[in-house]
Amino acid sequence: MPEAALHVGSGKVRELYALDADRLLLVASDRISTFDVVLPTEIPDKGRVLTGLSAFWFARTRNVCANHLVSLRPDGRSTECRRLEMLPIECVVRGYLAGSGWKDYTKTGAVCGHALPPGLLESAQLPEPIFTPATKATTGHDENIDRARAAELVGRDRLEEVERASIDLYRFASEYARERGIVIADTKFEFGLDDEGRLVLADEALTPDSSRFWPADEYGAGAAPTSFDKQFVRDYCESLGWDKTEPGPELPDDVVSGTRARYVEAFEPLTAVNFDHYLSDPEVVLR
Ligand code: PZK
Q1: Rounded CA gap, 99 and 4, in Å?
Q2: pLDDT tens, residue by residue, 95-126
Q3: How far is the centre of ligand 1, averaged over its atoms, from the C-alpha of 107 (Å)?
Q4: What is the pTM of this model?
Q5: 8 near 15, Cβ under 8 Å?
Q6: Which of 5, 89, 196, 207 has the lowest CB atom count within 10 Å?
Q7: DSSP-derived secondary structure letter, 54
């Protein structure tokens, strides 16, 4: 980053800088986390794949919901975006029964208050995508909240608006991805408001870090599908018998190269852009 910019926040694998009063710079690193621990080994170009995918979705969904993207930097990993007043909830949409949703269902027959038909198998597609908001935890895991709590946090009308936008975005992207060999099982959106109080999609969107991507050809209800991007990393970590506390293990070269290839294998069919072309001209994903 050549120009003076104030560091205003860190995610597990991303950094946020203020460019001026109304512009932020979101920078995606090549760091990878598994079992909630950031590993000491980076995956080359991971930040560029996620930034390019997010920018691609922002360009494709701007008629579904306005978004914060202003421009993509030539480094392919940095996004200039509009500074917003962020809403204090995570907007999760689930189209399939996975993760905490599956656990919830086995215990209660419902997922975050959405009653579901009996007899669904793990990973089953839901009759309709469901909206399951969560609060942003500063430490540890996001906590699912019910509609009443979400309405307290953002207001009843705003909640209806973000639910509609979240489901519309998920439907658009999951249908698009399914036709290209990728199941987006669930995803998390973050929204903010502009100066006029309009709802704007922010953060990263519809990437393997903010969503569960499954390879469609391996998908079947009744089993937990492999993760599109992190399966080699998880399998390797499991093979070590690591206890999943800090510090995480270094990754060997074959796990790094295999994982990098998986990110590129998600990027290329979705964007219809050759990844080397993206590296030489990132804006190709916006056109
Ligand atoms: C914002 N985060 C989370 C993400 C981090 C932190 N357009 C925006 N306007 C105002 N605030 C944010 C955004 C966005 N996006 C996002 N925190 C604030 C976050 C990535 C890296 F360090």
Answers
A1: 41
A2: 999 999 999 999 999 999 999 999 999 999 99
A3: 34
A4: 0.97
A5: no
A6: 196
A7: H
Cα–Cα distance between 260 and 228 in angstroms, integer?
A: 11
Shortest-distance Cα residue to atom 14 of ligand 1: 203
**Pocket of ligand 1 contains residue 28 by CB under 6 Å:** no
Q: Report pLDDT digits (tens) over 154-179.
A: 999 999 999 999 999 999 999 999 99
**C-beta of residue 268 within 8 angstroms of C-beta of residue 275:** yes
- The Cα–Cα gap between 70 and 262 comes to 28
Query: What is the 16 CA–ligand 1 centroid distance (Å)?
Result: 6
Q: Candidates 7, 8, 24: which one to mutate for ligand 1, based on the most atoms within 8 Å of Cβ?
A: 24
Q: Whose CA is nearest to atom 17 of ligand 1?
A: 9
Is 98 within 8 Å of 224 (Cβ atoms)?
A: yes
Alpha-helical regions (H) of the chain: 46-60, 99-108, 147-154, 156-178, 231-240, 253-271, 275-280
Give the number of other Cβ atoms within 10 Å of residue 253's Cβ.
8
Amino acid present at 99: G
Reported as type and span, the H/E element at residue 20 is strand 14-20
* CB of 16 closer than 6 angstroms to any ligand 1 atom: yes
Q: With H, G, I as helix, E, B as strand and everything else as coil, classify residue 33.
A: strand
Q: What are the CB-based long-range contacts (under 8 Å, 24+) for 279-286? A: 279/45, 279/48, 279/76, 282/48, 282/51, 282/52, 282/55, 282/72, 282/73, 282/74, 282/75, 282/76, 283/72, 285/52, 285/53, 285/55, 285/56, 285/59, 285/72, 286/55, 286/56, 286/59, 286/72
Least Cα distance to 88 among 195, 190, 166 occurs for: 190
Rounded Cα–Cα distance for residues 275 and 74 (Å): 14
